[in-house]
Amino acid sequence: MLTLAPPPMPRPVRRARARALALLAPRSRRAFFLLCDALRDEDALVREHAAGVLGRLGDRRAVPALELARPKTAGASRRAIDAALEALGERPPLDDEARLRADLREGPLEVRVAAARSLGARRDPASRRALEEALRDASAEVGAEAARSLGRRGRGAAREALEEVVADASWFHASVRAAAVEALGELADRRSLPRLLDAVRDPDADVSRAAVEALARVGDARAVPVFERILENEDGYFAPAVREAAERALAR
């Protein structure tokens, strides 16, 4: 009889048996329910494969097993279960923090970007830490979205992590640094003033412009002489967009 191997058996064996059950499930009631049991396997690939097959089979008897397994999974397994539930006419529960954090770590690019954006509305410490880690994501798009989300979390949120991004032009892409500067402006914490003043002379004009705008948002008078020097532009360093931002800041 073909069954999933118990946990002590090697993972490759359980994965192979899961694939075999997938072939048998369309015509075998027992194989179908063994696939439902596979949703509880300790191996994420077995769970993901089982969920995908159950969704394609279109048999609504799998719904209770899928719903029961969902809270205990994350990442690709969770996405496979959600897709199976949708294929069976069920609306998966709303995203929760654990799922979003897993998506931010493991998902493809578009999923990581969406997760970083959604986590900006969460206030739990674990979500903040996940966003801080995502600042160093391999994709600058994800890192920039994580920075913007940290800025939306409110005063004091991840200030030090954002300042580290702004300070390290050798590691962080300019788009991530610019987003981190904007986030510091949203936080409007005067403790970030020295870092923002330094960022005015960032080698990238977008970062420099964002720093001027962030300083204007913070509203500290110590930034006024900096704005005036930008307008004077004696060494020709500042791009037109930066000078225009300084002019708007002084007119406030």
What does this structure look like?
With about 250 residues, this protein is an all-alpha fold. The protein has a domain at about 1-95: Leucine-rich Repeat Variant (Alpha Horseshoe). The chain contains 15 helices and no strands. Helix 2 packs across helix 3 (about 45-55), helix 9 (about 140-150) packs parallel to helix 11 and helix 11 runs parallel beside helix 13 (about 205-220). The protein is elongated, with a radius of gyration of 25 Å.
What's the helical proportion of residues?
55-70%
Largest sheet: none
Report the structural category. Answer: mainly alpha
Strand/helix succession: HHHHHHHHHHHHHHH
The first-level CATH class of the domain at 1-93 is given as Mainly Alpha
The count of strands amounts to: 0
CATH topology tier name of the domain at 1-93: Leucine-rich Repeat Variant
What's the gist of this structure?
This protein is 66% helix and 0% strand. It is mainly alpha-helical and 252 residues long.
Q: Key features?
A:
single chain, mainly alpha, Leucine-rich Repeat Variant, 252 residues, 15 helices
Topology at a glance:
Layout: H1 11-24, H2 29-38, H3 44-57, H4 63-69, H5 75-87, H6 97-106, H7 109-119, H8 125-134, H9 140-152, H10 159-167, H11 174-187, H12 193-199, H13 205-218, H14 224-232, H15 240-251
Helix pairs in contact: 1-2, 1-3, 2-3, 3-5, 4-5, 6-7, 6-8, 7-9, 8-9, 9-11, 10-11, 11-13, 12-13, 13-15, 14-15
